[in-house]
Design brief:
Elements: E1 2-6, H1 10-21, E2 27-31, E3 37-39, E4 42-44, H2 46-55, H3 73-80, H4 91-106, H5 109-119, E5 125-128, E6 136-140, E7 143-146, H6 147-153, E8 160-165, H7 174-179, E9 183-186, H8 191-199, H9 204-209, E10 213-216, E11 219-220, E12 223-224, H10 229-235, H11 242-248, E13 255-259, H12 266-269, E14 275-279, H13 286-299
Parallel strand pairs: 1-2, 1-9, 2-5, 9-10, 10-13, 13-14
Antiparallel strand pairs: 3-4, 6-7, 6-8, 11-12
Helix pairs in contact: 1-2, 1-13, 4-5
């Protein structure tokens, strides 16, 4: 059994490779819920939905959000009648969100996701990190912003001064999934707003200390492959590099996978973690995704 800690962009690319070389039934994916909220009356769990769509081969892998080939009739009409949406939600994607919103009234988020995954024919287990509502604030030079306001309305442009997020309880099954895994893979998602919220859950770090953990750095050189990870790390005083990423996971990390361009950081990383794997981490096609996934799996003792 392999457990993967995931956000909504970098790690789903890796999941596309993993599900080609590992029996999907042997994969458990714990997904960030920090950014979940209600938009246009429906519950949006962006990272969870991205993983659902990735594992069911529905993902729009140009944007890493929403469903490939989706239409936007409702979104367009809302704008026409003077009710524009902050998030551009497609019609099929909206149907998924409506179903989840309805299921949550009866079951809660984890069970709702389990039902949806089964309906989509997904064989892997997908667990939202918490059934409780999270809260995140981005403190910037133009004031305090909600995450999606920062990301979408302001296009991640403001200078980030600090990040605050609430503590929530882990969803059922998370600690057991980690403890019963042959290994845990921390995907190349934003280490601050995607992975750190999972690590902050009670019992998670202790469980990881008893499990083999391999992490893929989302930072190459001094910048993130995608998204505002580098801006967030800088705001918190963390070195924007694969070394900075390793330092965040230092107390439980066994192996870090870095890009070939960061080979010069290998000796510095060896002072933090026992094993450093150097390879191509840019996943711009399925072959590269499968190759990285295979290298990670081969590194697990």
């Amino acid at each position: 059994m392999i457990t993967v800690l995931s956000g909504g962009t970098g790690t789903p690319k890796l999941l596309q490779g993993l599900k080609e070389i590992v029996n999907p039934k042997e994969l458990t994916i714990i997904v960030n819920t920090l950014e979940n909220d209600y938009f246009s009356g429906v519950y949006v769990s962006a990272d969870v939905d991205t993983v659902l769509y990735t594992m069911s081969d529905m993902i729009n892998d140009e944007l890493w959000y929403g469903v490939k080939g989706d239409t936007f009739i409702t979104n367009q009409h809302l704008e026409e009648i003077g009710c524009p949406e902050l998030l551009r939600i497609g019609d099929i994607d909206r149907a998924t969100k409506i179903q989840k919103t309805q299921l949550m009234k009866k079951y809660g988020l984890s069970k709702a996701v389990e039902i949806q995954a089964e309906k989509m024919g997904i064989q892997s287990k997908i667990i939202p990190m918490s059934d409780e509502q999270s809260d995140i604030k981005i403190i910037t030079d133009i004031g305090e912003l909600e995450f999606h306001d920062f990301l979408i309305k302001h296009q991640s442009q403001p200078e980030v001064l600090d990040i605050e997020f609430s503590n929530v309880s882990p969803a059922g099954g998370i600690i057991d999934a980690i403890r019963n895994s042959q290994a845990v893979i921390i995907g190349p998602s934003n280490p601050i707003t995607s992975i750190s919220p999972i690590l902050s859950l009670e019992g998670v770090r202790d469980a990881l200390k008893d499990t083999y953990v391999v992490a893929v750095s989302p930072i190459i050189g001094s910048d993130s492959v995608s998204g505002p990870a580098s801006k967030f790390m800088k705001a918190l005083g963390i070195d924007v590099s694969s070394v900075g990423v390793a330092s965040l996971y230092e107390d439980f990390l066994d192996n870090i996978v870095i890009d070939c361009k960061d080979y010069d950081k290998k000796s510095q990383l060896n002072q933090i973690v026992n094993k450093v794997t150097v390879t191509n981490t840019i996943m711009n096609n399925l072959g590269a995704k499968k190759n990285l996934a295979q290298i990670i799996i081969d590194s697990i003792p």
